[in-house]
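The records we work with from here on pair a chain with its fold. Taken together, the tokens spell out the fold as the letters spell out the chain. The record below shows the convention in full.
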Amino acid sequence: MESKTTKTILIILGVLMLCCCVVVGGGYWALTSGFEYFADSMIVDDPAQIQEAADELADYQLPVGYQEEFVMDILGFKALFITHSSKNSVIMLMQFNESLFGDVDQARQQFQDTFLQQFQGESIQFTPVGQEQVVIRGQETTLFIYEGSDSAGTDYEQWVSVFNGKNGTVMLMVYGAVGSLDQAELFSFLDSID
């Protein structure tokens, strides 16, 4: 009788050890290959897919020297990144569900912090320096203007506005080193958004 109990215990321990190996192996895969798989599936740099995503947000005319670089699609948030070939500036159009945030300024702050940590490696504390009433897609909205400095002392500016895009709320965020943003070009871009 004792040998039957011993066999049962050994079988249970063997099954538990096998389950542990599967969990550890799966966890290792998720942290190495799995993360890369999910990151690759969230960032799209295929021109046709970028254009398709851009068409879902709004129609617009790119300023001279800017190009659509990539799209991130994460949990229902779709962000299109537009960069300049030689300037240190980025235009981001992000469609999001406003009900998840309740407050557009809170959404702006969260996206700003995430964006800057991803692409600058640090968080810049922006302070408001102005605002202007603009019309985007036939809707009057406020364009908020912020400035801040990184730890190296480089001054940055950021323009932020929210408007109703083709398929939901879209946040416009323009970011660049002070002096790298051509205001006439950017206002022309805003006027072109339809």
